[in-house]
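User: Modeling request: complex.
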Amino acid sequence: MLGKLTLSSIPYDVPILVGTFIGVAVIGIAVLAAITYFRKWGYLWREWLTTVDHKKLGVMYIVLAIVMLLRGFADAFMMRTQLALSYAGNPGYLPPHHYDQVFSAHGTIMIFFMAMAFMTGLFNFVIPLQIGARDVAFPFLNSVSFYMTLVGAVLINVSLFIGEFSNVGWLGYPPISELQFNPGVGVDYYIWAVQISGVGTLLTGVNFFTTIVKMRAPGMKWMQMPVFTWTSFYAIVMILLTFPVLTVTIALLSLDRYLGMHFFTNDGGGSVMLYLNLIWSWGHPEVYILILPAFGVFSEIAATFSGKPLFGYKTMVYASGVITLLGCLVWVHHFFTMGAGADVNTFFGIMTMFIAVPTGVKIFNWLFTMYKGRVRFEGPMNWIVGFMITFSIGGMTGVMMAMPAADWVLHNSLFLVAHFHNVIIGGVFFGYIAGMNYWFPKVFGYKLRDSWGKWAFRCWFVGFYLSFIPLYIVGLEGMTRRLNHYDNPNWHPWLLVACVGVFVLAVGVACQVGQLICAIIDAVHQKRDALDATGDNWGSGRTLEWSIPSPVPHYNFARLPTVRGLDTFHIEKELGRPTPVESLKPIHMPKYSVLGPVIGVFTFLFGFAMVWHIWWMAIIGLLGVFAAMVIRSADLDIDFYVPVEEVRADEEAFAKRISAAQAAE
Amino acid sequence: MSHDTTHAPEAQHGEHEHHETPVVFGFWVYLMTDCILFGTLFVVFAVMCHQFAGGPTGKELFDITNVEIETAILLFSSITYGFASIAAHARKKSAVLAWLLVTFVLGVSFVGLEIHEFADLVERGAGPDRSAFLSSFFTLVGTHGLHVTIGLIWMFILFFQILGRQGLSDRMQSKLTCLSLFWHFLDIVWICVFTFVYLGSVM
Ligand code: HEM
Ligand SMILES: [Cu+2]
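Assistant: Request completed. Predicted assembly structure:
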């Protein structure tokens, strides 16, 4: 009846998990009780959970990303403290089987549910506004994508308390992920969490590709698109090119595990190296998918806070294109030891080194943007300075490992772990946090508090170096990754330093939580002075999103903007806004739909049932998704018109606020 | 929020802003990702096509006559779908329904023949768990078959929607165009399957 699921699958005998469960349960009940107490269920359901508004979906993605950051960070904290303790005679507090799940969960969560969710959240909120559109091409599909990402995240977190998680790392290498060596449900949780959220990402890719190609405001040529939209566009192209490969790879692994096939098994003619090639021909582009939008964020911020146009807009666009292309041609550098021979390795090594060229170009672009600018060190600007230093170091250690001969030694060591955290924290993470600080006032109308942000940045910056420079050193001394215990006395002091680092990072995370709590307090107290009247919250915005009120009305643009060049809003501020000639028209908008969350629930049933081999439930899940799609396809009542009176009222109020602000100056 | 204030009457649909419906374009983009999905499966097959693990080879297993019939049926169904499209453009509802029906029957026969072939292979001890070659064969051909099946279910639903309230509305026209792209795309994939998988194995 319940497949492999029995009472003994619940790890009530593991104190850490029971403690975590109680903690999560207490927080969960508190949140639910608060929602009930403040009678917010209806509001939550009507305004958020059923929404198809790209702005709200964007916010929900970022909330998800932040919750997952806390989870992923908790895992990192456990690993660092374990390794500070587990030297020589001391086994530490995490037994190997548990430790293996911790690093696997950390990697999977951080990449798929923290970074990808954060990135998709930024896409959702920013891209339609930057290109002057009223929504994405397929708003309902957008909601479905969100729920698929959410289902993946929920599945991974359910694995904490029901069953176990994968213990074979964030990429699930066979043969150890095969049934023969891993008969438990851990790998199956990994498979379905990644598969479902991966399909969600693919749909997001289709949606935003169509949005950018088809829905730019009248007059916006390709070379007039804001840089964030450009770099995101490249990331989206890479999503379209490579996520199908991920889908296939994970599907083949599931066929091995569920139907006894022989793609990656040791026997029956299977090939492990096929898996490595497939997963990395997605995996390497994936890291560029993550970093390119971050580059875009930095470009927007550098221009806004230097009071100058971005230096070398065109080189930025072309360099991103070159990175996209090269990013798809380097995957073999993840397994130079495969034995493909010197010429193949040389090709992939050189290609990898080439990527440093366009990336270096970008670093100079940002530097020259700031050069002789009137630079203001507000919140978002801190992260970009930290980024340029940190990312350059990470890039250089990357070029070191691009040499096959050196990589032969450094492969699989903590040197590698230090390298990729160097670029992923210093690049991706700093970038997304900067983006959140930058666009937050656009979303809510007031800024995040700067003091908390500054302390968060300081701790992340210092904590990062404390945690990861030691890993470069122990890596060079031969410490391999994924160890949960060691005897080498040379490593011990460095791992203690790294542990101090993780405490500093913890303070940084706490500051970020504090910053968000303060934001909620500010919202409740309606700090009017922090509210911005003009929509141009930083005072020097250049792109279209700053030309409309903050928070943005649900239809985004009362009149679709006419684009007159790069940085339209900046041009309008210089030359004066054209007085609108056309009268307002009713605005055509999509209706909210309950089918998004419904599809989410059934997808979750399906995923959970597949993990536990509960076939009847899997069928119910599939049928439910199918039924929801048929209902949607038959529904004729999916859109409505925003009446002119509403738009006019909004527009007049906005104009009044602007002239009041100008009079006050 | 006032997302339920006024409902858009059909008549107003004509004057959408500059974005005419991007549905067909979006579907194209999706099809390109599907193309990569099949491409990956072909690569996997190319890697695995000699990994027989002591089991039967394609030459011993495949019945080319059967596959030729399948091919003929699928290609023919593309033509009949083409007639359905022409009829849709001419807004001839009953002709659309009739051609969809013919296409549907052809599609079902294709899937039936494929299931029959698979069952036969499994019976002869050449199931997907026999060797890496057979795993990749079943997965590639099966994925195509699954796509065809989904296309048939889709066609089935559209059939009744055309009969019902939606008729041949603009929205229905673009749905029919998407399905048409899907159906012809599956034909192209099948031609690659026929050439590289079946002919490649027996030649
Ligand atoms: C918050 C600070 C972070 C700390 C202290 C941290 C720490 C760690 C540690 C200790 C490991 C295991 C190293 C080993 O193999 O022994 C690890 C692995 C990993 N981390 Fe992080 N990490 C952090 C942030 C991130 C972020 C932001 C990402 C991605 C967005 C990330 C992605 C990964 C991945 C993919 C792995 C590999 C997991 C595996 O071995 O399969 N980490 N991290
Ligand atoms: Cu790589």
